[in-house]
Automatic annotation (TrEMBL):
Keywords: Membrane, Transmembrane, Transmembrane helix. The chain crosses the membrane at residues 36-58, 94-112, 119-138, 150-168. Residues 1-25 are annotated as: Disordered. It comes from Streptomyces rochei (Streptomyces parvullus). This is VanZ family protein. It comes from the Bacteria. The keyword Cytoplasm does not apply. Residues 47-164 form the VanZ-like domain.
């Protein structure tokens, strides 16, 4: 037994791991079965998204072949959309391209946790969308490469990541607390 500063006796207890309440900012991972289910669902949705993306962007459009042109100047197509007399057409073009990127930003960090992070999502999305646009311009009749589509799709992916993808990825792939 040892004496404390006040002179009273106290039993010395061996040091053991303290069980403190977790910090409010510390995240606990979901149980393994839920993590596996969430990852599987995200993978299925990612495949469905890829099919929809391919159908929307890689289908030939012979009727619009004369209207297509390659755009390598950021903003040129956006100005053309906004200069149209019907605002509805501009909203469809711009909004559609942004919405097309949102699922990518939500699902990629869940399916591949190493892609989590604003810069990583930005780079991965830009590369994938560039590849889609290159394929569209080189292989599909009536379609052309448009850098503004890449910018809008990437913007949509970043919106999806910031609104939902980051949280979902953290819930599914939370890091174990460091000891």
């Amino acid at each position: 037994m040892a004496r404390t500063a006040s002179g009273s006796r106290s039993l010395l207890r061996p040091r053991t791991a303290r069980t403190e309440k977790p910090d409010a900012h510390e995240r606990r991972p979901l149980p393994l079965p839920l993590r596996l289910l969430a990852t599987l669902c995200a993978f299925v949705f990612m495949v469905a998204f890829a099919v929809v993306l391919a159908r929307l962007t890689l289908n030939p459009s012979p009727a619009s072949e004369a209207l297509t042109h390659t755009n390598m100047h950021p903003g040129r197509s956006l100005r053309a959309y906004l200069d149209q007399p019907a605002l509805r057409d501009a909203v469809k073009q711009i909004g559609g391209n942004i919405l097309l990127g949102v699922p990518f930003g939500v699902l990629v960090p869940v399916v591949a946790p190493r892609t989590r992070g604003l810069l990583r999502v930005l780079l991965l999305t830009a590369v994938v969308m560039l590849l889609v646009e290159f394929a569209q311009g080189a292989l599909v009749t009536g379609r052309a490469f448009d850098i503004d589509d890449v910018i809008l799709n990437t913007t949509g992916a970043l919106i999806g990541y910031l609104l939902l993808g980051r949280r979902m990825s953290r819930a599914v792939h939370a890091r174990e607390p460091r000891t």
